[in-house]
Each structure stands twice: as C-alpha cells, then as structure tokens.
Amino acid sequence: MIHPVILCGGSGTRLWPVSRKSYPKQFSPLMGEESLFQASLRRLSGPGFGAPIVLTNTEFRFIATEQLASLGISDGQVLIEPASRNTAPAVLCAALSLEATPEALMLVAPSDHVIADTDAFHAAVALGTQAAEAGRLVTFGIRPDRPETGYGYLELAHPGQSGAQPLERFVEKPCAAAAAEMLASGRFLWNAGIFLFRVCDILAAYEAHAPALIGPCRAALSEGRADLGFFRLGEAAFAACPDLSIDYAVMEKSDALSVVPFDGGWNDLGSWDAVWRELGPDADGLTTQGSVTAIDCSQSMLRSDDENMHLVGIGLKNIAAIAMRDAVLVANLDESQRVKEVVARLRTLNAPQAEGFPRCHRPWGWYETLSLAPRFQVKRIMVHPGAKLSLQSHVHRSEHWIVVSGTAKVTVDGTVTLLSENQSTYIPLGAVHRMENPGKVDMHLIEVQTGVYLGEDDIIRYEDIYART
C-alpha cells in the first residue's frame, strides 16, 4: 500500500490574477472543471493507494476538505502547518505520523502539477516501487523537450538505462546556455519534486542529513491537537523548524538516490506560457477559456474567469490576456515568468488584488463583494446545504438580507424565521444573529451592509460549529 502525501501550500504569485495568496493555483480549475488539487487526488487514489495525507495551512483547510469531499474522499488526513517552513519539515511530519508502519511506502507529490497520462504515471510509480522497497530514495525526473531555465535538473548516472536507475546529482536552475547544453547531452531530467520511499528509509535519511529537524517535528506532532476533521501541528515547535526544502535538506546529500525517467505529459504550470502550452493551442496558436471573443489573434491565450466579464481580443499576437472581475492581466507570453513582479508591485501599493481573491471561501460556503463604498457594502453570499454561519453580532454595522434562491433559517436575538426566495430581513446594529441553510440545495442571498466601519474583523462570535470562536 502506497500512502500519498500531498503538499498543498503555495504563495499564489506565478499565475496571478487567477492564483493569489488567499486562493493559490492548486484550488483553481485551470485546465477544466476540476482543480489541480482534485486531479492530484484522483491520480493518487484507487487500487494500491491508501488514504491521502494532505499538508496545508490554516487558511486553506476548509477549501481542501471541501474539495476532498467533492471526490467522496472521507478518510484523508489533513495536517495543518502553523507556519510556512518549506517541504522538508512537512514531509518529515508526514513520515513521523506513519512511523508505526516503518515498511510502508510514501509517495510525496505537489498538488499543483498536471500529469496528462495517469496510466503512465502509475507505471512509473510501479517501476520505482521495487527500488524504494530495497531502501532507495526514489525521485521522478521529466524528460525535457526544451532548454528550460525555470526548473531544477537531475543528472543521470547511466543515461539510456530503463526503469529506476542511480541518480548522479541534483542541479540548480541553470542559465539559458547551460540549459541548452544539458538538453543536448541527454543526461539530464527536470526535477518534478515527486518522491517515493519507505517510511523507515526517509526517517533514517533525516537522522543522517537533517537531524536538527527531528526534534521540532516530533514535538509538533506530540503537541498538536485534533481540530474538527484536521490535525493542527504544534505551533511553537513547528515554528522552530528551519525553512528548508527536502531536496536541500536530505535528497541532495543522500548516497541512496534512484530516479525514474517519466515522459507522460508533466507540467508544473509555473507561468501563463506553461498553461497556454498545456491547453493545446489551435492551428493559429490560440487558446480561449470562458466568455471570450478572439478576432485575428494568434499565439495567444484569452481567459475570462467572470461570467459577466466578456473579454475581446483583436489582432493579438503572443499575448496572455487574463480577465477577472477585480483585475486584468495583459502580458507578452514570453514575459509571463515576470508575473510575480506584478504581485510584489501591487503589495507596495497595498492593493487588495495583490493577495486577496474576489470570492472569499469559508467553511460554510463563500461570499464576494459586489459593491463597496464609504458607509455601505453589497455582498453575494452562498451557504452550502446544512451549513451555518457563526452566532455573531457587529459593533459598527447593520445588515439587510434578501434571499434570492433556496431557504434561509435566520436567528435574530433569539427569534427564528424561515425565509424563502424573494423574502428579506433586517439585522439591527448589535443584534445577535445567525444565518443557516436548512435545505438540500445551495442558498444564495444578497447582503447590504451599512455603517461607519465594514471590515471583516467587526465580528463578535458567540458560537461556531467550525471552532472559530
């Protein structure tokens, strides 16, 4: 049985504006109806795979569990990282959680990559399994098709050999000239950041090469606590971990490395140029997604993520045009690696679009702001069936709620009312209130807030089924 360990963090800067810090790319449906995270879960499930271990942070915990549930996965374990410490502590905590089964195999994978051929990937994992069961630390390398400077590389000890083979060394991201030389040599693979090993072997590797991580990670598990369906790692102990990747902390220093070459269609979607290639441009080199009209455009991608935003391109060539309700990106495809510079610039301007997503996901559903001005705000709110918001009050604002679909159960100062479509209610300033969905379909309403302060921190919670009080 292989235990999938799915890494689900990220800063959300490379595919802005669709990916942002509050909603990074793995949760977005970049390539179709499902998110990259959901596609990863499907790929790492089925015969031979155990329940997944998902490592994410507290901001993404409910998004992750919602997408797990959408696939019918109810036995997955979600470990909450209280601080960003890169992949070495995350993988070690997962390994320590499996320490009782030392011979068990762990397959560590990012959640934001595309692998087109699942059968070929499973075949590659099968090739790596024998080596992992023999005590090797196995990584998977992608056969390069271009001199890419955005990836790290793996040098093969015996080019041309099939199956799992000895790995000579890891190579940092090269310059263009070095990347071209490595491609021509046939000795190098892209580093996909996917690993397979037994629990006992990776723990021994940490003991040998990164012993400073062992104590804090053990303490993070022992001091951690269950919280609803999650397990929160101990905050102080985890924060004491050094910020290290598993490549640097362990893999590059080990003499028990093997690599399985893979050419089944892999892409880490690290730029809009990569997304454009993965989508499969038509004969004119054009890809379109969403509500889009392209006239005489070539070698370009046009994408609209808002049903009310129709994007039109005329005479575009080598352009990425990405439209959302609150932000639009227009960039030369060859310069799309520089999108993270945009995010850095927006942060200096304190622009909310730098990190905040227009649709804010919550454990009960989501909300988005339709209009915001001094003293009033209009929101659209969706509540899942059976879900309820916290029992709360506000110090600085009153609210009007208008149900537009479904049924709302509303509590205001102890009085409970059922509202159906086209009915409304008023929440006076200071009133203790709650909204919930008692029905079997999503409930949508429009909320109009009025007051001197409309920030999300103007909430006093008295009771909350999601343990946010």
TrEMBL record:
For the protein in the UniProt heading, the enzyme class is transferase
Which species does the entry assign this protein to? Paroceanicella profunda
Q: What is the catalytic activity of this protein?
A: alpha-D-mannose 1-phosphate + GTP + H(+) = GDP-alpha-D-mannose + diphosphate
Biological process per Gene Ontology, one example term: polysaccharide biosynthetic process
Domain Nucleotidyl transferase residues, every copy = 4-277
Question: What domain of life?
Answer: Bacteria
Output the lineage of the source organism.
Bacteria, Pseudomonadati, Pseudomonadota, Alphaproteobacteria, Rhodobacterales
Q: Which Gene3D superfamilies match?
A: Jelly Rolls, Spore Coat Polysaccharide Biosynthesis Protein SpsA, Chain A
Its EC number is 2.7.7.13
Q: What is this protein called?
A: mannose-1-phosphate guanylyltransferase
Protein family: Belongs to the mannose-6-phosphate isomerase type 2 family.
